[in-house]
Structures are given as structure tokens and as C-alpha cells.
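Lab notebook page, bench 4
Experiment: in silico fold of construct C2
Operator: M.H.
Input chain length: 108 residues
Purpose: comparison with the prior construct
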Amino acid sequence: MNDLKGKPIKIGSLAEYQTESVVSREIIKKNVGTVTIFAFDKGQGLSEHSAPYDAMVQIVDGSGEITISGNKNIVKKGELIIMPANEPHALFAKEPFKMILTMIRSVE
């Protein structure tokens, strides 16, 4: 992570697409939260799960299907969605897409 500090970086270059894979790279890791970039190949995803904190997903390439509590959302490049704490969510790539996941570990 230190090699990323203090200089401009092309976001899409932080995680490359790999055939039939989900690639992730944690770019900030602190006790209070993380920032991770993901690259999903077409047909790949993350199965339904929940987290104890809100999480923000920002799409940086392509578009992804993000289901929250049974409601499907298509989120496109340049858009974001907040996945509420303790609600089941899943991600699926109908086409290759890249996203940044920001998780802040805090309760109000």
C-alpha cells in the first residue's frame, strides 16, 4: 500500500480483470475501515451476505448488479450505492465491472 501514497494513480489499473475470476486489492486498511478495489469478470459475483456496517460501492468500470434485501439494482460507471448494515446483499457481473468498496467500521 505504501507504493500508492502521495501520487496520482489510474483507478482501473489497481485491479485487472482475470478470466472467470473476482480479483480484489485492499488499498487502505485501518482499524476504522478499509477501501478495496474489485474486478469482476462476466458471470462472477459475491454470494448473498451481510455486514454489521454500512458499505459504499462505487462503480469505476462497466456496470454491476447489486441486490440488497431482494431488490436488484444495476449500478453503472460513475454511480455509487450504499449497502445498509445488517441487510443481505449480493453482487453479480452481467458484464465485467470494477468497483471500489469503502467500509467504515463504526456504529452510531
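Observations: The chain has a mean pLDDT of 94. The beta strands are 22-30, 33-40, 45-49, 55-61, 63-68, 71-76, 80-83, 89-92, 97-104.
Next step: discuss at group meeting.
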